[in-house]
Amino acid sequence: MNVKPTVWLMAVLMSGAAIAGISIRTPVPEQPNFLEATVPETFGEWRKLDASPQMIDPATAEILKKVYAEVLSRTYVNSAGEQIMVSIARSKDQIGIHQAHLPKVCYPAQGFELLGAPNEAETLNTPDGQIPVTRMTARMGSRTEAVTYWLTMSDRVVRTRLEKRIVQLIAALTGQSPGGLLFRVSSIDRNSGHAFAVQQQFVADLMASISPDGRRRLAGLTPSRS
Q1: 20 to 30 A Cα–Cα from 132, which one of 28, 123, 166, 216?
Q2: Is-contact 86 24, C-beta < 8 A?
C-alpha cells in the first residue's frame, strides 16, 4: 500500500510535537491590558496622536471588541510628520485569529480594492531578527493605503495552513490554547515603496523599545542581545 508523503509528514509532526510539548513553558497569568501596558505611546521619534483618524468602521470595531480579549488602535507620527496607523487584536482562548478579520479579507469587505495580490512571503527586519509578514496595497476612492501585517499563535508567527496546524497540534498535546494575535500597521501613501520603508522603521523602533517578553508575544522574536 502506498502512503502519501503528507501522511508521513503529519506523523513526524505529531511525534515532534509530543517531544516539544515536554519542554514547553508554563503559561503566565493572563494580563487583561497586555497591549496597553506593552506598546508605549512614545518611543524613538514616534509619538501617539491624541486624535487618530478612523481606522476601521464602527460596526467592525464593535465586533472586534466582542470577539477578542483586547484590541489596540493608535496612530503615531514621527518628527518628519509621517503617520503610521497601528491595530492589534489579541485573542485568548480561540484557535488564533478569525480568518475573516485578516486584512486581505476585511479590507475588500469594507469597500477597498486590492491593488494586486497580497505578498505573503515578505520579511521585516528588526535588531532581534526577521518577522515574516504579509504586505498589500488597497485603494478606496482617493485613499491608497499600504498595509503590513502578521499573525501569531502561541507566540510564533504563522503564515501557512501547515504552520497553523503544527501549533494547534502542539497545543492539543500539551493542553494549552494557542490563542492568537493579529498585528497590523498601515499608512496612507500612494508610494507603497516609501510607505513600507517607513513601516519597517516604525516596527523596528517599536520592537527595540519594549521588553524581550513583549517582542516574543507581539512578533515571535527571541532575544538576540544581552
Answers
A1: 28
A2: no
Residue in 11, 83, 20 with CA at minimum distance from that of residue 47: 83
The DSSP bridge partners found for residue 180 are 91
Cβ atoms of 88 and 39 closer than 8 Å: yes
All residue ranges of the chain with pLDDT < 50 are: 1-28, 226
* CA distance linking residue 221 with residue 208, whole number of Å: 11
Q: Which parts of 23-106 are beta strand (E)?
A: 42-43, 46-48, 70-77, 83-91
Do the beta carbons of residue 150 and residue 121 sit within 8 Å?
no
Cell readout for 87 is: 491595530
Span between the terminal Cα atoms of the chain, in Å: 53
Q: What backbone torsions phi and psi does residue 96 show, to the nearest 5 degrees?
A: 80, -165
Tell me the CATH number of domain 33-219, given options 3.60.21, 3.40.1000, 2.40.128, 3.40.50: 3.40.1000
Q: What is the pLDDT of residues 89-136, one digit of tens each?
A: 988 655 556 665 789 999 999 999 999 999 999 999 999 999 999 999
- Report the C-alpha gap between 122 and 137 in whole angstroms: 14
Cβ atoms 139, 115 nearer than 8 A:
yes
DSSP 140: E
CA 209 to chain centre: 17
C-alpha cell at 60: 467592525
